[in-house]
Write a structure and sequence with these properties.
With about 280 residues, the protein is an alpha/beta fold. Helix content is about 50%, strand content about 15%.
Length: about 280
């Protein structure tokens, strides 16, 4: 049985590695927050005034605002798609994905997990990291990858050719709707659900739906911890990425997943980071 004490004992190495990295990498987040306001106000600001670690977000902000200024936002705009690919390959986001999967694998060992669920798989970048990590660790747990968009089927098919030994299945599932009977029949409990930046594009109903299929959660949604939003938050709302306040999500977690652990609490304390980047919850 997973307990907080057991959790703290068995993930201490991952926590130290990850939070030390967060504290070092995002120590100047307030510089970026102030600079993002200038960008939102269409003021001139040099790239070298913004810490390098935030340059991908800076480019994204500028393109979103440019598209807004011409009065047409287009997800298929080649420049926007290129920037999203750049953001996905940015060193921290790859590291973030690796930590989500390493943490999920560690928890799976502790809790005797029988099925992994990944929601919001999209381009399958995170799925690929998980399959690579399982291969490196000589593990082979069934993984069901879901998304609301059919593009997942094509992306996952490519991964199956790279990792033919993987127990990998795909399913279309919009998490604002109840899980289908098909999904429920594919699951062997206990299950662990992990994801990255998915709930930000959903609504609070999703938590109730997720609770029907998951016993343990590893959530990488950057829940707003302080209640204060910044210009970059407001601009990214324009592409549907709505900030989720921890004060709003916590009552839902308390109801469905009453045991919770803020994985990066030290970063919140040390540099006043405004977001919880990784949260663990279990029934």
């Amino acid at each position: 049985m997973l307990t907080r004490k057991l959790l703290e004992e068995k993930i201490v190495d991952l926590e130290k590695k990850y939070v030390d990295h967060l504290v070092e990498r995002f120590s100047e987040w307030e510089v970026w927050a102030k600079a993002s306001q200038k960008i939102a106000d269409r003021e001139e600001i040099r790239d070298d005034e913004i810490p390098q670690v935030f340059h991908a977000e800076m480019k994204m902000m500028r393109v979103i605002l440019e598209m807004e200024d011409i009065g047409k936002f287009d997800w298929n705009n080649p420049r926007l798609r290129e920037l999203f690919e750049e953001l996905a390959q940015e060193p921290f986001y790859k590291y973030f994905g690796e930590m989500i999967t390493d943490l999920s694998l560690r928890l799976a060992d502790l809790a005797g997990v029988n099925t992994f669920l990944e929601i919001g798989a999209g381009k399958a970048n995170l799925t690929g990291i998980m399959l690579k990590r399982m291969s490196e660790k000589n593990k082979s747990l069934p993984l069901i990858a879901t998304d609301a968009q059919p593009v997942i089927l094509e992306n996952i098919a490519k991964l199956k050719s790279v990792y033919p030994q993987a127990h990998l299945e795909t399913l279309l599932w919009n998490i604002v709707e109840s899980p289908s009977d098909e999904l429920l029949t594919k699951i062997t409990y206990p299950t662990l659900l992990y994801e990255r930046y998915t709930l930000n594009y959903a609504n609070f109903k999703a938590m109730e739906n997720i609770a029907q299929v998951a016993d343990i959660l590893v959530l990488g949604d950057w829940f707003n911890y302080t209640g204060q939003l910044y210009a970059y938050d407001e601009v990214f709302k324009k592409i549907g990425a709505h900030p989720l306040f921890y004060k709003d999500i916590k009552p839902l977690l308390d109801n469905f997943f009453p045991n919770q652990y803020i994985f990066d609490q030290r970063a919140l304390d040390a540099i006043k980071l405004p977001n919880i980047t990784l949260l663990i919850a279990w029934k």
